[in-house]
Every structure is written in structure tokens, then in C-alpha cells.
């Protein structure tokens, strides 16, 4: 409608404000409390960074953070490589089998808890010692699917005749990939990698089931879950603020690189 | 292609097949698995105690879905009605919370709903002096958490068909004599149903299998299927029954997805394109 | 001769969007039962004017009188005016029949009446075999007819058509122009069509208005506008015209090379002012056998066949652009010309129109 009555416009703005308040107030409260001297949600007692400082001295959290970083980096690297190749393979041959689509789509929609127990059963049947390596193996499963779908979205609009043009001009398949295909899809590959990294950093249930016994392979989300179960401590607020800042930055970057994952 | 497909086959297909197989075995006396074929795990799923948990989960997930769809559609409609250049900005900020850690978003609600949390503080500020209301560890808290966590996706799914809707269709309806309300009911809503369906299926599927939200916001008092599966594997040590529960969960999910696909097919080819992005 | 009744009076209507003025004080009368065209280049304000008639925009100033009643602020669903959208705006989730019934359902008519009126209009528009199809299963021409039927079935006082033939291919467009004329005659409803295609409005309209930059330049019958354009823009926009730039004199225009083009000089043009003389290609005679007031020799640059006639591009010292000359195939047979030939052109003073530059 070209013209809306002022009443309608006001209603629409009101709806938007309410929804944004609903979405952001919980997060804002958390962030604000992380800077609260007293640390209790009851009262504001002054600005302080002491909870951030106390995080820095918490060895359990630091080692969990390190574990998370290892898992996320390694699983993202593997998933980006495999997922990109898979996407190119599918789009180049244009074989969209139903089974193939289902196979790639499945990791994105299977309930986490199901994939988690499936992998737990699988690893224990093989008598594998579980640890960071099994978390990595598990994370690659869904990361690969996400990277593949992001890269495929870009390849849908890819003009394959430029690959033929490159071959026609005398380039080998490898040179064509390196100098023609890759530069065109690079933003999507990087966006997919950032998405995978974020998902991996945030993933809890699958890691929880495939980490095995012992604290050695605790990841950050597992640590956070334990802290939340234990009770509210101001340290979680600070940790939550940092984790949110990291994932939102990564996702914003990814969005900038590949307009379309979030905002299409 | 091959290595990626092999990875998926080895670490998704085989484990899932294994779970399916597990569900047909008997539980050992001291936990563990006894390799004799049985259907009793599936029978147990329909035991009133567990069937009740399924129904409970479905009710909680259904309520969360309904609320999320109503709020999400209203928000998507408001965004699609905003000036063109603001729409991507609003959409970006509507989806942004979706990308922060799920545990943390859930935890934020503990802080809010806590006996001494923000809401109690607000009530006090307005002059309330009685006992702090118990909001945390209720079914309402679980539903609020689910709605909060999945709302961004519903907004995204509903915005897609709304923004693609030719504004001249609504004008044509007005021109032919329909009021604004009739236009919404007979033109806008039917044409954006695929987005609503995509959003609803997403919220329902993720809610019914959810483990974290009932565990944290329900305080373990409100068991949902996800928690039940968790317990069978990590506490009760009855893997075959846990596997049967997981399969039942998958069956529900497939049922919902099939229903959506059928509905989308029926709503003529034209409308199916508005399915939205189901990456989540 | 009795003056036809005025159906719609547009009275000093203006509309601006922020700082942009889309329609600038336009006044027009549209008569009962006429086929009226609003013509102009894109951005001339014709679509905004149409949307104000339909009720989707409200004028900032002025009145829109339908049967003497001001409807400028009446919402679109409360006016006896219907619009056929440029995109057709057919409801994709409804069948052809449901699309056509929609407007009558809004009037809460009895089901039997809706049925018979829909049947009748589907028959008139030759859509009966497609009644149960969805819009996506129709061709462009069929969609156009559904859009037309959907608007006509409401028996509006006024039917507005926004570039109704724009989405059709050229051949179909020609057929639909005649079809629209026939339908308008048959249903006896006043049509107002918006178009940027001057040929279309010349063919279809009883009267037409030429708009530019939100202003009305001229409003008359196609013939009057073609033969006596109000200004240089209209002359150029409607049909094809040859222009000779120069300076106004007492009885014509002195071209830049000193040659004189005889013609009637408008009173508003004082001698010495910048002016253009113009003449239509079909008014120019090749190798004139009789005495003509204007005569020039030029070189044929190019020839183009247009079926029955031939168009010549002739380079002359009068203007930097070549003259366009239309010659019938008959005449061309009698005295064939080819590229590079020297030709003599002549035309009468009565066929010359002179405008301020």
C-alpha cells in the first residue's frame, strides 16, 4: 500500500519496538551485569571489570577456551575443505539426487540429541577413546553440511562457461580452479568457514556426548553449562559477554562477505 | 566429493543406523546391551508414562510454535512495511541474537526470571512487596525460552514471502472493494503461508527434541523427550530404550516435514518457492 | 451538437512526494463513455495521476469530481472506479473464476447473481475454457483478459488501465488494441488508459492528454494533436517529425544555412527568436511535380522498407540530422532511388509547423 494511515504506521512501529525489546533486553541485562561491581542481579553497585579479571585467572575456563579453539579451528578447516569440494562436485555435475540432498540436509535438521547419542554409541562400539579428536570428528559432520550449503548458494549463480573459457585458453584443470573458480567463490568459502567456526564454538550437546570422561576435553559451552547448573555466578555474565561478542563479530563478518546467508 | 560423502556416511549414516539397530536389542541386566531381538523398547515408548512425556513435549513445543509464529509474523510484517532501505537493517538486528550462543541466550532468561531477577525488581519498583513470583522452573519459562531462541528464524522465514509479495496484489484487492482486514485475510495471509509453515516446522522440530531449555529453565521438573533420551544414555544406562526414543523423535520430525511438504505442494507450485532458508 | 456529459473532472490536482512534484496543477475533463489516454514519457506523472483516480494516492491539492462528487479522499475500496494493474496483479492462489468473483463477493451480492455476472463476463472476454485455471497456467494475453474481466465485472463508472498492453509482444498488442476498443464499446464503460506508447494512444483513444514533468501540455483528439501539436515536445513525442532549427522571420524560419522555410509563424514568436520549423515525413514529396513553397536538394543516406512504404534518410544542408521522408511503394517503383542518389524534396507551407526552440 502506497499510503498507510498514521494509526497503522504507529501500530507497526509499536510492534517492532516490542519485538526488539523482547530480543535485546535479556542480552542487555546480561552484558550490563557483567560490569556490575557487586555481581548480583539485585542491585547495581558500580562499574567494574573485576569479573573479566577473575575469568583470566580461572584455569578451568582458560583450558576449556583453548579446547574450544582447537576443536573449532580443526573441524572448520576440515569441513571447509570437504564442504567446498562437495559443493563444487554437486553443482558442476548438476546431479541433484534426492538421496544426496537428504544426506547433506540431514546434519542440519537432525535433533542434536539424536546425532549426539548416535555418535556416542558408534564411538563406544568401536572402543574409541573419546576426547577432543572425537568432538572434532563429530563437529565436521554438521559443519561440512553448512559450508556446503553456503558455497552451493554462491555456485548457483556461477557462470560455468568461464571455466570452459579458461580451459579453452589453455589452463589446466588445477590452474583453472586456482585462478578462476576459487577467486569467484572465495567470499562464500570464507563465509561458510566463519559460520562453521561459530557453530562449532557454540555447540554443546554433541560435544558433551562425544567428549568422553574427564575434564581434559571440556569445551567452553560444556564449562558454561556446568557453571549455569551450579548457579548464577557473575563470572558467567562476563564469559557470556565475551562469547557473544566473538560469535556476533564472526557472523557479522561472514554476513558482510556473503550477503545472503542471513539477510536474503 | 567422495571424502565428504564418506565422512557423512561414516559419521552420520552409520551411527544413525546403529541407533536404529540398538533400538531392537534388549537391555542388559547391569546396563549394557544384550544382543537379542525385541520390540519391547518401542512398546515402552507407548507406555502411558512415556507417551505422556511425548504428549507433554508436543504440547510445550506446539505452544511455543504458536506464540513464536504470531510474534514472528507480526514482526516480519512490520519489517516488510518499513521503508525499503531500513528493511535489511531491521532484519539483520532481528536475526543477530540467533547467532549468539544458545546456552547463553537461555541463561539470560534465568537471570531475568530468577526470584531476585529483573522482573521481580521491576515489580518491587512498582510497589509490589509480596513474595517474589516463581517464574523460573515452570512450563511458562520453558516456553518463553523456546520462543526467545527460535523467534529470529520465524521472522526470517515469514519475511521472505512477505517481502516478495507484489504490493499491487493488496492494492488490487482494495480496488475491488475489499477492506484492509479482508485483504489481509484473503490475499496476504494465504500467499505467505509457506513462510509461516517453514518457520513453524522449524520451531516445532527443534523444540520437541530440545534438551537444554527444559534442563535449564524447567529445572529438570518438566521432562521433554530430549531429556528422556539424555537420561537413558547418561543416567539410566538403558541405551536400547534411549535409541527407541530417539527413533520416535526422528519419526515425529519426518512426519511434520512430510506434512509441510505435502501442504506446500498442494498450495500450487507458485507458492512453494517462498519456503525460506531452513539453514539454522 | 450537444456537448457530451462530463463524467470525471480533475480540477487543479497536485501531488508531491517530499520535494518531488509528481503532478503539478493538472485540470482535465473526461467524458461519459469515452476512451481517454494519458500519454507521456516515464516520470511525467501519468501513473501518479491514475493512482489518485483509483484512490491509492491522495492529492495534496485540488479536487477529483466523479459525477460531481469529490472523491479525492475516498478510499479505493469505496469508489466506483476500478484499476487494471500493469502487472495484472492476479491473485496467484485463486482460479480465474475466483479472481473474477472476488470483487462481487466484496459487494456481498447473492451467490446466484455473482455466478451469472461472472459467467457473462467470462463469455465476453472468451475466458470460459480457462475458468478453473490458476493465473500461472495462462499466457500473457489470457492474463490480461482476466485482469480486464475482474475489473469490468464490477461495472465501474470508470475503468483505469495502467499500461495494459505493456507486457505483451508486438503482434498481440496490435490485436489487443482493437479488442479493447471493441470491449469498451460493448460494455459502455468509460476507459482511461495510461501509456507511454504514442502509437497506442493514437490508435485507441477518442481523446488524449499529453503530460510532461507533471504538467498537462495538450488535451485533444489524436488527430488534432498529431496535426497541430501545442509545442515542440509534443510534436517530437507524437509520431515522427523533421525539425529545421533557425530563427523566426515574418513568414517562416531562416535555417542556419540561410535557406528560408515558409510556414505560418505563431503570434507568440517575435522575429529573430530561436525557432524550429517542422514537417511530417509523409507530407514531404519526392521530386515534386507541382510547385511547392519549400524545396531542397539532398543526398540519400539510407533506405528502409516498411512493407507498403519506404522510408528515406536524406542528408540536407538544412539540419545536422537527416530528413525522414516517407514514400509509398508505388511512387518508389515509378522512380527508383538508391543510396547516394541526389534527390529533390518539396513540401507546402501549410504542412509546416513552427515552434519556439
UniProtKB/TrEMBL annotation, chain A:
Q: What family name appears in the similarity comment?
A: Belongs to the binding-protein-dependent transport system permease family. CysTW subfamily.
Q: Which organism is it from?
A: Mesorhizobium ciceri biovar biserrulae (strain HAMBI 2942 / LMG 23838 / WSM1271)
As for membrane topology, the entry says: Multi-pass membrane protein
Q: Where are the transmembrane segments?
A: 12-35, 55-88, 100-124, 130-151, 180-199
Which keywords label this protein?
Answer: Cell membrane, Membrane, Transmembrane, Transmembrane helix, Transport
- Which residues belong to any copy of the ABC transmembrane type-1 domain? 65-254
GO annotation terms (biological process): transmembrane transport
Q: What is its main location?
A: membrane
An example GO CC term for this entry is: plasma membrane
Q: Would you tell me the protein name for this molecule?
A: Binding-protein-dependent transport systems inner membrane component
From TrEMBL, chain B:
- Protein name (database record): Binding-protein-dependent transport systems inner membrane component
SUPFAM superfamilies assigned: MetI-like
Give the signal peptide as a residue range, or say none if absent. none
Q: Where is the ABC transmembrane type-1 domain?
A: 54-262
Query: What PROSITE patterns does the record tag this protein with?
Result: ABC_TM1 (PS50928)
Sorted keywords for this record are: Cell membrane, Membrane, Transmembrane, Transmembrane helix, Transport
Query: What's a single GO CC term here?
Result: plasma membrane
Family assignment? Belongs to the binding-protein-dependent transport system permease family. CysTW subfamily.
The record describes its membrane topology as: Multi-pass membrane protein
From TrEMBL, chain C:
Q: Which InterPro entries match?
A: AAA+_ATPase, ABC_SmlMolc_Importer, ABC_transporter-like_ATP-bd, ABC_transporter-like_CS, Mo/tungstate-bd_C_term_dom, NA-bd_OB-fold, P-loop_NTPase, PotA-like
Record field: catalytic activity: ATP + H2O + polyamine-[polyamine-binding protein]Side 1 = ADP + phosphate + polyamineSide 2 + [polyamine-binding protein]Side 1
Q: What top-level branch of life does the organism fall under?
A: Bacteria
Q: Which GO terms describe its cellular component?
A: ATP-binding cassette (ABC) transporter complex
The GO terms this record gives for MF are: ABC-type polyamine transporter activity; ATP binding; ATP hydrolysis activity
- PROSITE patterns in the record: ABC_TRANSPORTER_1 (PS00211), ABC_TRANSPORTER_2 (PS50893)
> Which GO BP terms sit in this record?
putrescine transport
Does Translocase appear among the keywords? Answer: yes
SUPFAM superfamilies recorded: MOP-like, P-loop containing nucleoside triphosphate hydrolases
Enzyme Commission (EC) number: 7.6.2.11
Keywords in alphabetical order, please. ATP-binding, Cell membrane, Membrane, Nucleotide-binding, Translocase, Transport
Q: Which residues form the ABC transporter domain?
A: 8-238
Keyword Metal-binding listed: no
What subunit structure does UniProt give?
A: The complex is composed of two ATP-binding proteins (PotA), two transmembrane proteins (PotB and PotC) and a solute-binding protein (PotD).
Q: What does this protein do?
A: Part of the ABC transporter complex PotABCD involved in spermidine/putrescine import. Responsible for energy coupling to the transport system.
Protein family per UniProt = Belongs to the ABC transporter superfamily. Spermidine/putrescine importer (TC 3.A.1.11.1) family.
Q: Report what the protein is called.
A: Spermidine/putrescine import ATP-binding protein PotA
Q: Which organism is it from?
A: Mesorhizobium ciceri biovar biserrulae (strain HAMBI 2942 / LMG 23838 / WSM1271)
Q: What is the lineage of its organism?
A: Bacteria, Pseudomonadati, Pseudomonadota, Alphaproteobacteria, Hyphomicrobiales
Amino acid at each position: 500500500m502506497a499510503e498507510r494511515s498514521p494509526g497503522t504506521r504507529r501500530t507497526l512501529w509499536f510492534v517492532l519496538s516490542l519485538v526488539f525489546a523482547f530480543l535485546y533486553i535479556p542480552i542487555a541485562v546480561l552484558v550490563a551485569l557483567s560490569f556490575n561491581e557487586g555481581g548480583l542481579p539485585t542491585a547495581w553497585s558500580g562499574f567494574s571489570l573485576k569479573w573479566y579479571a577473575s575469568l583470566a585467572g580461572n584455569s578451568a575456563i582458560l583450558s576449556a577456551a583453548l579446547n574450544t579453539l582447537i576443536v573449532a579451528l580443526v573441524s572448520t578447516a576440515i569441513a571447509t575443505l570437504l564442504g567446498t569440494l562437495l559443493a563444487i562436485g554437486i553443482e558442476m555435475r548438476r546431479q541433484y539426487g534426492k538421496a544426496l540432498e537428504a544426506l547433506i540436509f540431514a546434519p542440519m535438521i537432525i535433533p542434536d540429541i539424536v546425532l549426539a547419542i548416535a555418535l556416542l554409541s558408534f564411538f563406544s562400539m568401536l572402543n574409541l577413546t573419546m576426547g577432543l579428536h572425537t568432538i572434532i570428528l563429530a563437529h565436521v559432520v554438521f559443519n561440512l553440511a553448512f559450508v556446503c550449503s553456503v558455497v552451493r548458494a554462491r555456485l548457483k549463480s556461477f557462470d560455468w562457461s568461464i571455466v570452459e573459457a579458461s580451459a579453452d585458453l589453455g589452463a589446466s584443470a588445477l590452474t583453472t580452479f586456482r585462478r578462476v573458480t576459487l577467486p569467484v567463490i572465495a567470499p562464500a568459502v570464507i563465509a561458510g568457514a566463519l559460520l562453521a567456526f561459530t557453530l562449532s564454538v557454540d555447540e554443546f550437546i554433541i560435544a558433551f556426548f562425544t567428549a568422553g570422561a574427564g575434564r581434559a576435553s571440556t569445551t567452553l559451552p560444556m564449562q558454561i553449562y556446568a557453571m549455569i547448573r551450579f548457579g548464577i555466578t557473575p563470572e558467567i555474565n562476563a564469559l557470556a559477554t565475551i562469547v557473544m561478542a566473538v560469535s556476533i563479530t564472526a557472523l557479522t563478518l561472514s554476513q558482510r562477505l556473503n550477503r545472503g546467508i542471513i539477510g536474503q | 566429493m567422495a571424502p565428504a560423502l564418506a565422512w557423512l556416511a561414516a559419521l552420520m549414516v552409520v551411527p544413525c543406523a546403529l541407533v536404529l539397530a540398538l533400538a531392537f536389542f534388549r537391555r542388559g541386566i547391569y546396563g549394557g546391551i544384550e544382543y537379542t531381538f525385541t520390540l519391547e523398547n518401542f512398546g515402552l515408548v507407548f507406555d502411558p508414562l512415556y507417551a505422556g512425556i511425548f504428549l507433554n513435549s508436543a504440547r510445550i513445543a506446539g505452544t511455543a510454535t504458536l506464540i513464536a509464529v504470531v510474534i514472528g509474523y507480526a514482526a516480519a510484517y512490520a519489517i516488510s512495511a518499513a521503508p525499503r532501505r531500513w528493511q535489511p537493517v531491521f532484519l539483520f538486528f532481528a536475526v543477530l541474537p540467533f547467532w549468539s550462543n544458545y546456552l547463553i541466550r537461555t541463561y539470560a532468561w534465568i537471570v531475568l526470571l530468577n526470584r531476585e531477577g529483573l522482573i521481580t525488581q521491576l515489580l518491587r519498583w512498582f510497589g509490589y512487596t509480596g513474595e517474589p513470583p516463581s517464574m523460573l522452573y515452570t512450563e511458562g519459562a520453558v516456553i518463553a525460552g523456546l520462543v526467545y531462541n527460535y523467534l529470529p528464524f520465524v521472522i526470517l522465514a515469514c519475511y521472505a514471502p512477505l517481502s516478495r509479495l507484489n504490493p499491487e496484489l493488496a492494492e488490487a484487492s482494495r480496488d475491488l472493494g475489499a477492506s484492509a482486514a479482508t485483504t489481509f485475510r484473503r490475499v496476504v495471509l494465504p500467499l505467505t503461508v509457506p513462510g509461516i509453515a517453514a518457520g513453524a516446522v522449524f520451531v516445532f522440530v527443534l523444540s520437541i527434541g530440545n534438551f537444554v531449555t527444559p534442563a535449564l529453565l524447567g529445572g529438570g521438573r518438566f521432562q521433554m523427550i530430549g531429556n528422556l533420551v539424555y537420561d537413558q544414555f547418561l543416567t539410566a544406562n538403558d541405551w536400547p530404550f534411549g535409541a527407541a526414543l530417539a527413533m520416535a523423535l526422528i519419526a515425529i520430525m519426518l512426519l511434520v516435514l512430510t506434512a509441510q511438504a505435502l501442504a506446500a505442494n498442494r498450495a500450487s507450485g507458485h507458492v512453494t518457492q517462498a519456503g525460506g532458508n531452513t539453514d539454522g | 451538437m450537444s456537448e457530451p456529459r462530463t463524467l470525471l473532472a480533475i480540477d487543479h490536482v497536485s501531488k508531491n512526494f517530499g520535494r518531488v512534484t509528481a503532478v503539478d496543477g493538472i485540470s482535465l475533463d473526461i467524458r461519459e463513455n469515452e476512451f481517454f489516454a494519458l500519454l507521456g514519457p516515464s516520470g511525467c506523472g501519468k501513473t501518479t495521476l491514475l493512482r489518485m483516480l483509483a484512490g491509492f494516492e491522495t492529492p495534496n491539492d485540488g479536487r477529483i469530481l466523479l459525477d460531481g462528487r469529490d472523491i479525492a479522499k475516498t478510499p479505493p475500496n469505496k469508489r466506483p472506479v476500478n484499476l487494471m494493474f500493469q502487472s495484472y496483479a492476479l491473485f496467484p492462489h485463486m482460479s480465474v473464476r475466483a479472481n473474477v468473483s472476488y470483487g462481487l463477493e466484496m459487494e456481498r451480492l447473492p451467490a446466484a447473481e455473482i455466478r451469472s455476472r461472472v459467467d457473462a463476463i467470462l463469455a465476453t472476454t472468451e475466458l470460459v475454457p480457462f475458468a478453473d485455471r490458476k493465473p500461472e497456467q495462462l499466457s500473457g494475453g489470457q492474463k490480461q483478459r482476466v485482469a480486464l474481466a475482474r475489473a469490468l465485472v464490477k461495472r465501474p463508472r470508470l475503468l483505469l488501465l495502467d499500461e495494459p498492453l505493456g507486457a505483451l509482444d508486438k503482434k498481440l498488442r496490435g490485436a489487443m488494441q482493437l479488442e479493447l476498443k471493441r470491449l469498451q464499446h460493448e460494455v459502455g464503460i468509460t476507459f482511461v488508459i495510461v501509456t507511454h506508447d504514442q502509437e497506442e494512444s493514437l490508435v485507441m483513444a477518442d481523446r488524449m492528454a499529453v503530460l510532461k514533468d507533471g504538467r498537462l501540455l495538450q488535451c485533444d483528439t489524436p488527430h488534432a494533436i498529431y496535426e497541430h501539436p501545442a509545442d515542440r515536445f509534443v510534436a517530437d513525442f507524437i509520431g515522427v517529425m523533421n525539425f529545421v532549427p533557425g530563427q523566426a522571420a515574418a513568414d517562416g524560419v531562416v535555417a542556419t544555412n540561410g535557406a528560408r522555410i515558409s510556414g505560418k509563424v505563431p503570434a507568440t514568436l517575435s522575429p529573430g527568436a530561436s525557432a524550429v520549423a517542422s514537417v511530417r515525413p509523409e507530407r514531404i514529396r519526392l521530386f515534386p511535380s507541382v510547385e511547392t513553397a519549400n524545396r531542397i536538394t539532398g543526398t540519400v543516406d539510407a533506405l528502409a522498407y516498411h512493407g507498403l512504404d519506404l522510408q528515406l534518410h536524406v542528408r540536407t544542408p538544412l539540419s545536422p540530422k537527416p530528413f525522414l521522408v516517407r514514400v509509398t511503394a508505388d511512387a518508389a517503383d515509378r522512380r527508383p532511388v538508391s543510396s547516394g542518389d541526389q534527390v529533390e524534396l518539396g513540401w507546402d507551407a501549410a504542412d509546416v509547423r513552427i515552434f519556439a526552440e
